[in-house]
Amino acid sequence: MLDGVYVGVGGPSYETVAECCFLRRIGADAVGMSTVAEAVAARHCGLRVLGLSLITNAAPLPPEDGGPAPQDPPAGHQEVLEAAGAGARHLRELLARLAPRHAKGGDMGRTR
């Protein structure tokens, strides 16, 4: 598990190369269409929040910014769904380990 800077975007479309280049330059490590709005709403209601992300595809960056070669197309929706399915088992295992700590009121990690 890694920590980093997660940027939430509105969606519902995948990010463009230009958007990803901008977000990388301002410090983003991961980009997603969920989590941020839900976390803000939950905190507004006084709830404790634990944000988890399952990264399913690499950002479409140009080669000079670390992206794939021009002939490699960005991941499509089907590849994203397959990656999510493959990662779901790991996420279930993690949540199964975290649930008992949460039920006891234990610390779920750092807060900001």
TrEMBL record:
This is purine-nucleoside phosphorylase. Pathway: Purine metabolism; purine nucleoside salvage. It comes from Anas zonorhyncha (Eastern spot-billed duck). GO terms for molecular function: purine-nucleoside phosphorylase activity. Keywords: Glycosyltransferase, Transferase. It is an enzyme of class 2 (transferase). GO terms for cellular component: cytoplasm. The keyword Glycosyltransferase applies. One of its GO terms (biological process) is nucleoside metabolic process.
